[in-house]
Specification:
By secondary structure, the chain is mainly beta. The protein contains 2 helices and 12 strands; from the N terminus they run E-E-H-H-E-E-E-E-E-E-E-E-E-E.
Length: 217
């Protein structure tokens, strides 16, 4: 909703008797929480930029500034880990289809395989804990076999964030802690409902496997 003076507002949700929302206007999929309005308003403003580098940099700056300042406190039920793999929960879907914001909760030691982002830009920021990040560049392809080179490896802490803009979209993410949960927010340039993972083979090449993605809970 936009007011007469041009400001964007988030109308009050309709709640079920359990306390969970029946419906959230303007794309929010949960109850409001501390820092909610500042986060979503800044993401919406960033998504209106035409140049993809300006857009992703504005999203990256938003996550870095708000997370480092401790201004955003996500609801506990959205940042709970699950036993077998990282949890993936939709936080916000832009009504105009410009982006989605997805929270991921990582139990101790949980990580992804090498994967791509299906040609969609993405900005990822650490909200809680710390993450290991390995970035790869594609060097060669032969049919469904791919050869990658690791070009960066780092540990990201609270407020650290980065951008993936195709064709530079290949990486591995993992919780850097073997004891504590880490939480990341991923902002995608659309609905990220599939990707490809790349399984290593003995000769140093990788085989591409299509993977469907779903939301936890």
């Amino acid at each position: 909703m936009v007011t007469e003076d041009g400001a964007r507002t988030l109308p009050a949700p309709l709640f079920l008797s359990s306390g969970y929302p029946l419906a959230m206007p303007d794309g929010l999929t949960t109850e409001e929480f501390p820092g909610c309005r500042a986060l979503i308003e800044r993401l919406c403003d960033a998504a209106e930029k035409e140049d993809i580098h300006d857009l992703t940099e504005a999203v990256r700056a938003t996550l870095t500034e708000l997370f480092r300042a401790g201004e955003v406190q996500f609801p506990e039920r959205l940042i709970r880990p699950i036993p077998d793999h990282y949890a993936r929960r939709l936080l916000y879907r832009c009504p105009q289809g410009r982006f989605t914001a997805v929270l991921m909760a990582w139990g101790p030691g949980q990580r992804t395989p090498l994967h791509d982002h299906a040609g969609i830009w993405c900005v990822e920021g650490v909200a809680i804990g710390s993450m290991n990040v390995e970035r790869y560049d594609l060097r060669e392809q032969q049919g469904d076999r791919y050869r990658f080179e690791k070009v960066e490896e780092l540990r990201a802490g609270i407020g650290d964030s980065g951008c993936l803009i195709p064709p530079f979209e290949y990486h591995i993410l993992g919780n850097a802690s073997d004891q504590d949960t880490s939480v990341t927010l991923h902002v995608y340039g659309g609905e990220m409902d599939h990707c490809a993972i790349y399984e290593p083979e003995v000769d140093g090449w990788h085989r591409r496997i299509e993977k469907r993605l779903a939301y936890t809970d």
